[in-house]
Amino acid sequence: MSESNDKELLYGLEERIAPAPAFFTAIQHVLASVVGIITPPLIIGSVLGLNAYLPYLISMSLLASGIGTFIQARRFMSVGAGMICLQGTSFAFLGVILSGGMLVKSRGGSPEDIMAMIFGVNFVAAFIPLLVSRFIGQMRRVFTPLVSGTVIALIGISLIKVSITDWAGGHGAVNFGAPANLGLGALTLLVIVACNRIEVRWLRLSSIVLGVVVGCIAAALTGHLTVKPLQGDWFALPQLFRFGFKFDWIIFVPIALVSFISILEAVGDLTANCMLSQQPIEGESFRKRLKGGILADGISCLIAAAFSSFPNTTFAQNNGVIQMTGVASRYVGMYIGGVLLVLGLFPFIGEILQQIPAPVLGGATLVMFGSVVAAGIRIMTQSPVGRREMLIIAIAFGIGLGIEAVPDVLGQFPPIVGNIFGHAVTSGGVLAILLNLLMPAERSISVAAQEVKVH
C-alpha cells in the first residue's frame, strides 16, 4: 500500500480498535442504515394490512440484520466476507413481495396467511445465494468489475433519490420542499463535511453522529421535531416461523429471480467494500471474500425468513460511512451487529430513532450515497474503458434509469414484469450482464498491429 492510501484509513481491515471508538463508529453505521432496514416492513405492512404486527416485523428486521452483520464481520470458517458488510432488509424484493401478498389476499387469505406464505417462499429462495456462492469462481465472466461497478453506481443513484426526498421533508409531507426543511438538511450536511475535513480523529469518527445531533437540535429549536409517545412493546423475543410456513410456485418464481439479481447487487457492494478497505478486487483472496460474503447473505436470508423478517442483502449505505470515517476494521462490524441485535430485542429504541426528522436524515445520507456512486465509477474504471465498455455502461444506465424514472413504459406488460424490472438496479444490472456476455471484447491495439505486420 502506498503512503497516501495508508493515510486514507484510520483503522485497516484487521486492526483492532478500542471499544469506545468502535462503538461510536458502529452507531454511525446504524444511523446510516436503520431507516433503510425498517422502511421495507413499514411499506409492506401498510400495503398488505399487517399493521397489527408491524412492531414485531420491524423488531425482527433489526434482529436479523444484526445477526447477519455479525456473521459477515466475524467470518466463521468460510462463511462471511470478513469485512464491515452491514446486512439490511432489501428494497429489491418490495415489488414481488407485495404482488405475492396481494395474490394471497385476493384468495381470501388472512394477514397470518399472507405472512406464512411470504416468509415460507423467502426461506426457500434463500437457498439460491447459498448455491450460487459455491460457483462464484466459475462466474467470473458475469461478475466483472465493469458489471459490478455499473450496478454499484445504479444503486447509489437510486439511493440518492431517497435522500433528496427525505431532505425535502419526506414522501407525502405537507411542507415538502419548504426552505426550513432544506435548511435543516444543509446544516446537517455542512457539519458532517466540516468534521470530516478537520484533522482530529474523534471528530472524523463522529462526523455523522454530530451532524445528526446538530440537525436534531436545530429541528427542536425551530419546532420541526415532534416527540411522539412510545406505543410498542418494550421487549420482544424472536419466535421461529411465528405465522407458519406455506409455499406457492407462482409466488416463488419472481422472488427467486430477484434473489439471483440481488446477488449481483451484493457482489457490487462487496467489491466496493474491498476497495474502500484497501483489499484486492481480483485474484484468489477476492474470490474467497465474494464466496464467503454471498454465502453469509444466503444464511442471513434464511435467518430473516425463520424469524419473520423480509430478505436481507449487503447494504451499500455503510460503504459511504467507511469512506467518511476512515475506519475499515472488521471488528467494528461485530459492534454493529450487537447494536442492531439490541435494537431488535428492544423495539422502543427503534421507535425513538424513527423520530429523527426526515430532512436531517436526508442531509446525513446524501453524502454517503454519493460516495456509493463514486465508488461504482472507480470500480468501472479499474481497467481501460474502451468503446465496448462505454456502450455497455451507456445502455445499462440509459435503460435502467429511464425505466425507473418512467415506470409506465412497462405498463402494457404483466404486472410481474414491472415489479421485477421497474428498478434501475434490476433492469440495468441484467442488461449489463447480458451485454458483457454477448458483446465480443475488442482486440488490443498491440495485437492488431502485430497481425498487420504478419500480413
Describe this structure in words.
With 455 residues, this protein is mainly α. It contains 20 helices and 2 strands. Strands 1-2 form a two-stranded antiparallel sheet. Helix 7 runs antiparallel to helix 16 (358-380) and helix 8 (179-197) packs antiparallel against helix 10. The longest helix is centred in the N-terminal third of the chain and has 30 residues, at 19-48.
Layout: helices, strands, pairs:
Blueprint: H1 3-8, H2 19-48, H3 54-74, E1 87-89, H4 94-106, H5 111-125, H6 127-133, H7 145-167, H8 179-197, H9 201-205, H10 207-221, H11 249-276, H12 284-306, E2 312-314, H13 317-325, H14 330-345, H15 347-354, H16 358-380, H17 387-405, H18 415-421, H19 424-438, H20 445-454
Output the keywords.
single chain; 455 residues; mainly alpha; 20 helices; globular; disordered N terminus
Round the mean pLDDT to the nearest integer and report it: 83
Q: Please identify the structural class as seen in this structure.
A: mainly alpha
Distance between the termini: 44 Å
Strand order of the largest sheet: 1-2
Helix percent reads 55-70%
Q: Specify Rg, calculated over alpha carbons.
A: 22 Å
Oligomer: single chain
- Order of helices and strands, N to C? HHHEHHHHHHHHHEHHHHHHHH
User: Spans with pLDDT under 50 lasting ≥5 residues?
Assistant: 1-6, 445-450
How many distinct helices? 20
Name the beta content range.
under 5%
Give a count of the beta strands, DSSP E runs of length 2 or more: 2
What is the approximate shape?
globular
